[in-house]
Design goal:
Length: 182
Amino acid sequence: ERAYVTNVFDRKAVALEFSPDGSKLYTIVGRAANNHEVRQYTMSTPWDVSTAVQDATLSLKTGSFYDTNWTNDLVWNPDGTKLIALNDSSSRDQSSIRMFNVTTPYDIGTVTSEVTYTIEGLSYVAIDHPLSFEFNSSGTKMIVGGFDSYASNQQAYQRIQEFDLAGSYDFSTITKLSATSY
């Protein structure tokens, strides 16, 4: 299957990520009413998506309804042994990070385990709809962009939020820093 949408239920591609050498492409596909999944494509010519062929799929339906339908972004750690997914809180009370461990770097077909970490609870929400995220070069700081859907004027409550992590891509302790004022 090529890297383009072929099914009415695959209309929502919410994230794109590449392996560092450009030989693999990862997308999150799905719809709000269907389970999201990560699809992995191998490209015969690096960075040329017209040569992409799907070779693995990671179903995100192992969690709750909201975990499976509201995964908005994904990032690999630098050595490709952890795929990190950003989950929306939707109508529940927390946003989360889902981390998938893989045995073969940058290959979702070799996922061995998953751990979920809460990043915000309802009592102190600044971003309950996190849409995208990135990490600093050492993996000790996570920057999340999104908005507060509980605000009366959601446009005015778009946020960029910083979090300090316990160590490099270590979510055992997540410390929330000040959000931007917009």
